[in-house]
Design brief:
InterPro entries: 5-3_exonucl_a-hlix_arch_N, 5-3_exonuclease, 5-3_exonuclease_C_sf, DNA_polI_H3TH, FEN, HhH2, PIN-like_dom_sf. This is 5'-3' exonuclease. One of its GO terms (molecular function) is 5'-3' exonuclease activity. The chain has 355 residues and is α/β, with parallel strands linked by helices. It has 2 domains: 3-206 and 304-322, 5'-nuclease (Rossmann fold); 208-301, DNA polymerase, domain 1, CATH 1.10.150. Helix 1 (8-17) packs across helix 3 (53-67) and helix 1 (8-17) packs across helix 5. The strands form 2 sheets. It has a 6-stranded mixed sheet, with helices on both faces. It has helices at residues 8-17, 30-40, 53-67, 83-87, 100-115, 128-139, 171-176, 196-203, 210-217, 232-242, 245-255, 260-269, 277-281, 290-301, 324-333, 337-340, and strands spanning 3-7, 71-75, 119-121, 145-149, 162-167, 191-194, 345-346, 352-354. The chain has 16 helices and 8 strands.
Length: 355
């Protein structure tokens, strides 16, 4: 058995921008870009844009054919006003709304997956990562779990039972640096397979420490503040020594201010050139700094694995039972003529005739 969990929002967005002509990036305003795409983007005769749906569908079919998952589910982001925004209103606050041409294709892709009988999940209060995290933890003891995404946040979910297929332009180089030929590996195209071993080789930390790393360093892509003044050169040695930010702060609070010099000496022995102690202990009524910033940042970075609404989901509901007859109808509607060849021929009752 094998469960594959796909970050639908990540894959659809990647599929969209992976097919955008280079000229697009020379345009400065969103209005210019939108007008350009309306002329260039793949579209059906009836006016349905498919320049993201088509490549995502092709990737999905290849994934099913080559990886042969017995179970499959797709998770979606549907709102930015999740519980994280309640914790920190500026969370992902710098991101622009999706281009309308991309936004329209979420519904198209979800409708297609529904017709194909592929399980999908989305909730207003949670992100796709939280859905994936909950399903991974729920089923990883029963079967191997593989997460397919471009979002590095998912790396914190790696365990003995869960691996991450990370879409990255560095995939081939990462394999090559380990003496591996990607063409000989059974991994999806353009992905690097992260396990507990390969994660530790690259980051020098355990996967679960990814959230503590972001708690200290922050993450500009999600607008997670972190502790100002503490970068990777300090964060990684500190986490190797203390494990998590809670234990780091317990140590600092036990030692300071009486034994501040000893703390600084330890930090120096850890290979940290400039002591981050002042940044870690800074307090302010007007700024988000020090411990308060670290604790909040960790809460923002931590993927939830306990969504109650998914408690009743069973393995049977995630089983791969693609309705090829309905898939064929949808492909014809969306004018996916080349992808029709990838579908088995089926009788009216849905029985497969040929692969």
């Amino acid at each position: 058995m094998k469960l594959v969990l796909i970050d639908g929002s990540s894959l659809l967005t990647t599929s969209f921008f992976g097919n955008v002509p280079r000229d697009y990036y020379q345009l400065k305003s969103q209005e210019e870009r939108e007008a350009y795409l309306r002329k260039k983007a793949l579209c059906t005769e009836s006016g349905i844009y498919t320049n993201a749906v088509y490549p995502m569908t092709r990737i999905l079919l290849n994934l099913v054919e080559r990886q042969k998952p017995t179970h499959l589910a797709v998770a979606w982001d549907v709102s930015r006003n999740t519980f994280r925004r309640e914790l920190y209103p500026d969370y992902k606050g710098h991101r622009e709304d999706a281009l309308p041409i991309l936004g329209q294709q979420y519904g198209t892709m979800q409708s297609l997956l529904s017709a194909m009988n592929i399980a999908q999940f989305w909730f207003d209060d949670y992100e796709a990562d939280d859905i994936i995290g909950t399903l991974a933890r729920k089923f990883e003891k029963d079967m191997p779990v593989y997460i397919y995404t471009k979002d590095q946040d998912a790396l914190q979910l790696i365990s003995e039972g869960t691996r991450v297929w990370l879409l990255t332009s560095k995939a081939e180089a990462l394999y090559k640096s380990r003496g591996l030929n990607v063409k000989e590996l059974a991994v999806p195209d353009g992905t690097f397979e992260y396990t507990t071993v390969t994660f530790e080789e690259e980051y020098g930390l355990k996967p679960w420490q990814m959230v503590d790393k972001k708690a200290l360093e922050g993450d500009s892509s999600d607008n997670i503040p972190g502790v100002k003044g503490v970068g990777e050169k300090a964060a990684v040695p500190l986490l190797r020594e203390f494990g998590q930010i809670e234990d780091l702060y317990d140590y600092i609070e036990d030692m300071c201010p009486e034994h501040e010099s000893e703390v600084k000496l330890l930090f120096k022995e850890l290979g940290i050139a400039r002591s981050p102690l002042a940044y870690l202990t800074k307090e302010s009524d007007t700024e988000l700094v020090g411990k308060r910033a670290a604790v909040l940042s960790k809460a923002l970075a931590t993927i939830r694995t306990d969504i109650e609404a998914l408690a009743t989901v069973d393995a049977a509901s995630l089983e791969m039972r693609i309705d090829y007859a309905q898939a064929r109808e949808k492909f014809m509607e969306l004018e996916f003529s080349s992808l029709l060849k990838k579908l088995p021929t089926v009788k009216a009752d849905g029985e497969e005739l040929a692969g």
